[in-house]
Amino acid sequence: MNEKLPLFNKLSRLRIPLVTKMIVLICGLIILMLLVLGIYTNGKYSETVSEQIGIRALSVAQSVSEIPEIREAFFTENPSEIIQPIAESIRVKTGSEFIVVGNTEGVRYSHPLEERIGETMVGDDNDRALLEGESYISEADGSLGPSIRGKVPVFSEEGTVIGVVSVGFLLDDIEMTIGTYVSELWYWILFSILIGIIGAVLISLHVKKSILGLEPNEIGQLFEEREAIFQSIHEGIIAVDKEGRITMCNQNALELLHTEEKNVKGKYLRDLVTNTKIMEVLETGEGQYNQELWVDNERFIVNRVPIYYDNKLIGAVSTLRNRTEIERLAEELSKVKQYSEALRVQTHEFSNKLNTISGLLQLDRTKEAVEFINKESKKQQEWIHFLINSVKDSYVSAVLLGKLNRAHELGIKMTIHSDSELLTPLTERQREGLVTILGNLLENAYDAVRESENDQHVSIFFTDIGHEILFEIEDSGPGITDEDADRIFQKGFTTKKGSHRGFGLALVQQLLKELNGSLTLETSESGGACFIVTIPKADEEGETHDRQAI
Length: 550
Prior knowledge:
The longest helix is centred in the first third of the chain and has 48 residues, at 18-65. The chain is α+β, with helices and mostly antiparallel strands. A five-stranded antiparallel sheet has the order 6-5-9-8-7. It has helices spanning 4-13, 18-65, 68-73, 79-94, 127-132, 171-210, 216-232, 251-256, 269-272, 278-284, 323-362, 366-390, 394-410, 428-450, 482-485, 504-514, 538-541, and strands at residues 98-103, 136-142, 145-155, 161-170, 236-241, 246-249, 288-295, 298-309, 312-322, 413-416, 457-463, 468-475, 518-523, 529-536. It is built from 17 helices and 14 strands.
């Protein structure tokens, strides 16, 4: 017993290739079906042939029994002289093995072998015809061998039974006829089995090729790995078919849908997200790339791509990458860079100021040195004091203070209108958007005035009176021509020299669109550009995640 266990374990661990399994199973199924079909057809054909031959024998017997000469011959001295020629003639024409006519005692008046005329009929199956007057089919062993017989009584004109007609076909001949047909049938069955085996091999090889030669366990392992990788992807992924039904959705995407259901496969995405733009991709067949989406104060980059198979649109997939996390990391790095830049600017600025103070002291102009120190300190304190009192948001204050220092370093006169005020609390989206918008517009203004031969001056005014937040940034630069005014918001367009330019105003326009704001270009009093930024206040803008468009 113990010796057999290792062999059993080896057999249980034996992995039969998929192709072999498919060939064996398909061939086995085909052979089984054809064998069952052959056996059933063989039996049914044999039964049908025997039944038809019996009906044929009965029909011939009925015809013979109704011949007047046959009836009249029964009342002659030697009936066989009349009956035998008639019976043999009919037997030859009908192909019967025998036609035997006998009287009520069973004595033959006709027989294929004339020497047996006058002898008693064999088979013991005449009683129903002679005693009850029935016509029937029987199977019995006669003088010529086992046969199928049609038995019909012969009636006189008065209606009494005067004899019996027996027409028969030998079972050996019947079986030979059946065997001829059945042998052909089995040849066709064997040919069909051969074709089935060839087809099974071809189908198995095609299936193997379709699944890239992988075995079922390998496919299962790959599926589990794919599912694990799919769920571990940090990005949200949602795939739908051409009807908009969800076919694939990982955990991160499921969290963005704000649904309590854990299994959303098969559900329509529009039932979970009222304003989904993925339906536009299914309608147009064109992808949408790098579009921004806000969900619960989190910014995402969304890509929506159509899925084609054999040049037919079968669905679409949407990927969502959390841009807020990336920006937070970039912000931390940017803070270090800004801190370093600020230190550099301050070092440069204070180095110049210290040299000025040192020179005044060496010239023994102490009073002027003190006045210079008070003047510089007062200017810096005025900026800080104004921004603390007029701007509630610290991020906006910081970017304005940084740009003031930047302008001072570049030798550009930058002023903030004394009536400027921004005391409205900002949302996270508004704060991040304004910091980027102000930074880009002020940098563009600096570049513009540095190219101008006029007085280099940049002014800014802002207010939150009414239902909107307004920023107005003017410069004394050369301005923007009417021709360029229509193109400055296009990504990649720039009037400046150098590479990697032409993205600032396009980014500003995109951010304002997300904030439901607007950007207007006018000409300043000095002939330069004047950009007016308007953003609805938070209570007017409302929440953003109810408009999400995954």
